[in-house]
Design brief:
216 residues; alpha+beta; 3-stranded antiparallel beta sheet
């Protein structure tokens, strides 16, 4: 009951923030989107306009390092890491992560994978996992004791690989390891991803990020 009440309170806070913040269109030509898909006249990529969305990492957060034996930063996903949903019939094999250099005071970690290129108006959370013990320095398919495999935007728990719409622009999947100043977010696995990341925002003391690309 305590976790349910806390999640409900966080959801109400997210709604309040959303009501008070207006997103603005952003020219992302200088970012990771390929110029060939950009329309100068409309400010659209791939037929959809981009919006600037406020992040969940404070300016004071430290930077540390994350690597993967399965995909390099800026590289493409291996075929077996694609989803088994949304028209893809692949193994949905979770990419493995290794990290080091987290700031002093880290009491747990969280991992997310977010697709800002999804034509949803709010991106798409593919992977949300938290309460990873502070003693961990890697994440594979077997989760450490106490770790919570959260719910993604498809309503599934655990890792959901990429499967962008066929013929769409390249999608950039941002994988982030968060160092948190709390041993637990005290949230149930069914908590919506937006509520989890909002709750997390008040505890982030460091981040490590890599971006992998997928296109069909």
């Amino acid at each position: 009951m305590k976790k349910t009440v806390r999640a409900a309170a966080a959801l109400a806070a997210v709604a309040a923030v959303a009501a008070g913040v207006t997103t603005a269109s952003a020219d992302t030509r200088g970012g990771h989107h390929e110029a060939s898909s950009y329309s100068e006249a409309s400010g659209h990529y791939g037929g959809y306009k981009y919006n600037r969305i406020r992040g969940n990492v404070p300016d004071s957060a430290a930077q540390f390092s994350v690597t993967s034996p399965d995909v390099r930063d800026g590289g493409t996903f291996p075929a077996d890491a694609y989803a088994d949903a949304f028209g893809c019939t692949t193994p949905n094999k979770q990419v493995r992560l290794n990290w080091h250099g987290a700031p002093k005071g880290t009491r747990s970690y969280a991992v997310t994978m977010f697709d800002p290129d999804a034509p949803s108006g709010s991106g798409f959370w593919h992977w949300v996992t938290w309460d990873i013990p502070a003693t961990a320095s890697s994440l594979g398919s077997a989760l450490p004791a106490g770790t919570v495999a959260g719910t993604d935007d498809a309503g599934r728990t655990g890792y959901l690989g990429p499967c962008p719409p066929a013929g769409d622009i390249a999608h950039h999947y941002v994988i982030t390891v968060y160092a948190l100043d709390t041993p637990s977010l005290d949230l149930p696995a069914a908590t919506p991803a937006a509520v989890t990341t909002f709750t997390m925002s008040g505890h982030v003391i460091g981040t490590a990020t890599l971006t992998a690309i997928a296109r069909r």
